[in-house]
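Q: Here's a chain of 247 amino acids. Please give me its 3D structure as C-alpha cells.
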Amino acid sequence: MKLSLRLGIALGAVFLVAVPFTALLSLVDSKWGPLRHLDDDSTRSLNTYVLDHRALIDPLKATSYIFHAWVFRTVVLALAVWLFIRGARRLALWAVVTLTAAGLLGFLLKVAVDRPRPELPTPIAHFPGGSFPSGHAMTAAMGTVTIVLIVLPVLPRAGRVVAWVLAILISFASGICRVALGVHYVSDVVAGWILGVAVVMATAAAFEAWRRDEGRTPVHAATEGLEPEAAPQISALGDPEDAPHRT
C-alpha cells in the first residue's frame, strides 16, 4: 500500500474519532436532556452501589491515584528522556509533543466547557476543576497508547497483543473509577478516552509523514510500532549502535 494512501487512511481515522468527540461535546454543551439523564442516572447508580459496598472505596481511590494523570505524564516523559539518551530522538520528540498537545487540549476544553462536577447526596471524593473531559481518562488513553506504539518493535507477537489488552484495561479502569467515585459523568470519561486516542492518532500520522520525507519504509503502527528500525535504541538490552539508522 502506498504511503500516501496509508497517510490518508490514518487521517481519515483521526477524523472518524474526532467526529464522535465533537458530537459529544455539542450534546454536553447544549445540555441535551437524554444525555443529562443518562449521566445523572449512571453516576448516581454507580455511586450508590459503591456506598453500599464500602470495601470498594479504598481500592477505587487507590486506582485513581495509581492511574493519575501525572503518573502517565511522568512515565511518558521519562520514556522520552530514555529514548533521547539512547539516540531515538525523533521518537522522544514525538512522545513529548503528544504529551504536551494532550495536556493543553484537555486544559483548554475544561476551561471552555466549564462543566460542573456531579453533585451527589453523599459524595465519596472531591476534586477541583471542570468535569469535561476527564483528564484521568484522557491521559490514561494517551499515555498507554503512546507507550505501546513506542515499545511494540521490541515485543514478540504475543507480547504486542498483551500490550494492547493492558492499555485498554488500564484506560478503562482509570476512567470507570472516576465515575464510581462520583467525580465525573460517563460522558466525561468517554470524551476523555476519545480525545486521548485522537491526539495520539493525529501526532502518529504526522510522524509517519515525517518518515516519508526521509524515505523510510511505511509501517502499520498498530502492529509494528511507530518506528520499528529504532528497536535497538528502544530496547534496554540492545546496543543503540546496532541500529541501521540514527533516529
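Q: Can you summarize the key feature?
A: DSSP finds ten helices and no strands in the chain.
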